[in-house]
Amino acid sequence: TPAALRELQVEMIDRFGLLPQPTRDLFAAAELKLTANALGVRKLELGESGGRLQFRAQPAIDPRKVIRMIQREPMVYRLDGQDKLRITRELATAEARIAFAHALLEALGPAIG
């Protein structure tokens, strides 16, 4: 769970001090994986020039959100078949990819409030 992941991170900081960037990136990737899985995302791949998001058969995502994203930013998002969202955006660093993935999953997730 995300709470267990945060608890582990706090424990590691208590034992070893500040975590190096690769370790922080690993925790961020694990958190993204948990979030993506809860939304029904089978795979999220991002590289320096973009990537793709592949949905499961019945994702917990409103398809209208995906359509609105494509309509707002057609140069960034496009459908690739029935279950893939292709992403075209420069994401030169691991930090940029992690931040983009967080924002993407948040935009696709259920509204809070």
TrEMBL record:
Q: Keywords in UniProt for this one?
A: Hydrolase
| Protein name in the entry | Transcription-repair coupling factor
Its top-level enzyme class, in one word, is hydrolase
Q: Tell me which Pfam families the record gives.
A: TRCF
Domain named Transcription-repair-coupling factor C-terminal is located at 1-71
Q: What is its EC number?
A: 3.6.1.-
What InterPro entries does the annotation carry? TRCF-like_C_D7, TRCF_C
A Gene Ontology molecular function term for this protein is: hydrolase activity
GO aspect biological process, one term: DNA repair
- The reply to whether Hydrolase figures as a keyword in the UniProt entry is yes
SUPFAM superfamilies under this entry?
Answer: TRCF domain-like (SSF143517)
